[in-house]
Amino acid sequence: MASVTFDTHKFARKLKEAGFDEKQAEAVSEAFRDAQTEADPLTKKDLQIELAPVKSDLLIVKWMLGLVFAAEVMPLLAKLLA
Q1: Contact partners, residue 25, CB within 8 Å, separation at least 6
Q2: Mean of pLDDT values over 50-78
Q3: Which of its termini does the chain have fewer beta carbons within 10 Å around, N or C?
Q4: Angle between helices 8-17 and 22-38 in degrees, nearest 10
């Protein structure tokens, strides 16, 4: 899991500047930090694992289309050109 650095002090300070009182700013900052630590970001490896079955299915479909083309269309073209 990727680690994200989060400056809670800077975040709380910006909230205070925007009108939050200190207690609210700290609570929102802590909640945001906790939410980030609990998050499970999707990585490139996760995506590759998820997409591997789709990739293999597409390969099968390509082969099937190639076979259909060879079996059905090629004889028709041969008749037309003969």
Answers
A1: 11, 12, 13, 15, 16
A2: 91
A3: C
A4: 140
Which residue's structure tokens are 């597409």? 58
Question: What residue spans define the domains of the chain?
Answer: 1-41, 42-82
Amino acid at 81: L
Q: How far is CA 37 from the centre of its chain?
A: 19
Q: Are 42 and 10 in contact (CB under 8 A)?
A: no
pTM for this model (two decimals)? 0.44
For residue 21, give both structure tokens: 């009182």
Which amino acid would we find at residue 10? Answer: K
pLDDT per residue over 1-55, tens digit each?
455 677 888 999 999 999 999 999 999 999 988 888 777 777 888 889 999 999 9
DSSP output for 64-79: HHHHHIIIIIHHHHHH
